[in-house]
């Protein structure tokens, strides 16, 4: 296989581990390259995220590192995360499991697609999100007003600190903290979770990807949209966000660890 390795850069032990994993994978007969930032830290030449291609990207880091890699790749390549982070929900293997995982496989990796959401603001595409897009006010302790349009019908109008538009993958991240449900990643849907809504009762909504979903910002206050904690966009006053299922899902290598076991083990005692 042609494998690209990405390491988190702020931890020398993760970089050392990545270098030794590169040697192990080469000795198993794989073609190994390093992502440019990782390579620079190891004194080698590498490939920028945008140009990553091949059969597999191995990310040594936590969820932030996996999100960054998926966000930066122009063309999605299957990702396998090795958990060198605090939670590592998206990083399935522990460092001591990686060698046995690769020793048992030459090139028959099973890959699971994970839906992403494609986001446009006032008709211009701004990016795809694997976890979520969150709209937040620029001014602390000020509320925004939102209207949610589903198939041209005004479904909900409310004031809140912000609004999360999450994927099922993101349901275990920010959306969970904001009171949203855990959504099986095999379901395709848009999960809307308001942040501190100003009303007596408000419920998260799970909306089919077959519907036309638009979020209108009905406010004069400055706001930002953040994708996966990676990119931030300034929103014009009264911007309209169009939400679609991306045609370019993220691809994750299936390691055989059941999703609901991970929920139980990794998210119970945070
Ligand atoms: N209050 C919150 O829960 C909150 C606030 C801001 C951002 N976030 C999340 O952080 C993500 C960015 O990650 P980061 O590591 O760069 O930021 P970060 O360093 O602020 O960490 C956010 C935490 O969320 C966890 N996380 C991220 N994606 C997850 C997922 N799909 N399932 C379970 N846990 C997950 C990470 O392990 C980490 O512990 C955003 O996409 C957002 O979902 C959460
Ligand atoms: N190759 C890279 N180039 C630049 N920045 C990187 C790279 N890899 C990781 N980062 C950044 O370094 C930080 C590492 O955090 P990461 O989320 O991986 O670990 P963590 O916060 O300890 O774990 P978790 O998110 O699982 O709790 C993130 O902000 C990530 O975006």
Give an overview of the whole structure.
The protein has helices spanning 12-27, 36-41, 63-72, 98-103, 174-177, 259-267, and strands at residues 2-7, 31-34, 56-61, 79-83, 111-114, 117-121, 124-129, 132-137, 144-150, 153-160, 162-166, 189-195, 205-208, 213-217, 223-227, 231-235, 240-245, 250-253. The chain folds into 2 domains: 2-114 and 249-268, Probable inorganic polyphosphate/atp-NAD kinase, domain 1 (Rossmann fold); 117-245, Tumour Suppressor Smad4. Helix content is 19%, strand content 36%. The protein has 6 helices and 18 strands. The longest helix is centred in the first third of the chain and has 16 residues, at 12-27. Bound molecules: nicotinamide-adenine-dinucleotide and adenosine-5'-triphosphate (ATP).
Total domain units: 2
How would you spell out the order of helices and strands? EHEHEHEHEEEEEEEHEEEEEEEH
CATH topology annotation of the largest domain: Rossmann fold
Strand order of the main beta sheet, please? 7-6-17-14-9-10
The multimeric state of the shown protein is: single chain
CATH class of the largest domain: Alpha Beta
Task: Please count the helical segments.
Answer: 6
Q: What value does the average pLDDT take?
A: 96
* Secondary-structure arrangement, i.e. CATH architecture of the largest domain: 3-Layer(aba) Sandwich
- Which bin fits the share of residues in helices? 10-25%
Spatial gap, N to C terminus = 36 Å
Largest sheet: 6 strands, antiparallel
- Radius of gyration (CA) equals 20 Å
Bound molecules: nicotinamide-adenine-dinucleotide, adenosine-5'-triphosphate
Supply the helix-strand structural class.
alpha+beta
Report the portion of residues in β strands: 35-45%
Number of strands: 18
CATH superfamily grouping of the largest domain: Probable inorganic polyphosphate/atp-NAD kinase, domain 1
Active site: 63
EC number: 2.7.1.23
Catalytic activity: NAD(+) + ATP = ADP + NADP(+) + H(+)
Function: Involved in the regulation of the intracellular balance of NAD and NADP, and is a key enzyme in the biosynthesis of NADP. Catalyzes specifically the phosphorylation on 2'-hydroxyl of the adenosine moiety of NAD to yield NADP.
């Amino acid at each position: 296989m042609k494998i690209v390795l990405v390491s988190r850069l702020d931890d020398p032990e993760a970089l050392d581990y990545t270098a030794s994993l590169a040697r192990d994978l080469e000795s198993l007969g794989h073609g190994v390259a390093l992502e440019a930032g990782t390579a620079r830290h190891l004194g080698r030449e590498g490939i920028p995220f945008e140009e990553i291609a091949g059969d597999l990207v191995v990310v040594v880091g936590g969820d932030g590192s996996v999100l960054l890699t998926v966000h930066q790749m122009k063309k999605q390549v299957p990702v396998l995360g090795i958990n060198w982070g605090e939670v590592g929900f998206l990083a399935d293997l522990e460092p001591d499991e990686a060698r046995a995982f690769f020793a048992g496989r030459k090139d028959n990796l099973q890959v699971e697609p994970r839906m992403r959401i494609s986001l446009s603001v006032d008709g211009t595409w701004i990016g795809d999100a694997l976890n979520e897009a969150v709209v937040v006010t620029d001014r602390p302790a000020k509320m925004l007003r939102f209207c949610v349009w589903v198939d041209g019908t005004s479904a909900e109008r409310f004031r809140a600190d912000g609004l999360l538009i999450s994927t099922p993958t993101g349901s275990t991240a920010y959306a969970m903290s904001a009171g949203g449900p855990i959504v099986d990643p095999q379901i395709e849907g848009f999960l809307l979770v308001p942040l501190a809504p100003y009303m007596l009762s408000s419920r998260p909504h799970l909306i089919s990807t077959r519907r036309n979903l638009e979020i209108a910002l009905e406010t004069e206050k400055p706001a930002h949209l953040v994708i996966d904690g990676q990119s931030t966009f300034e929103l014009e006053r009264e911007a309209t966000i169009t939400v679609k299922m991306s045609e370019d899902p993220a691809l994750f290598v299936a390691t055989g660890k059941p999703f609901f076991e991970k929920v139980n083990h990794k998210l119970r005692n945070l």
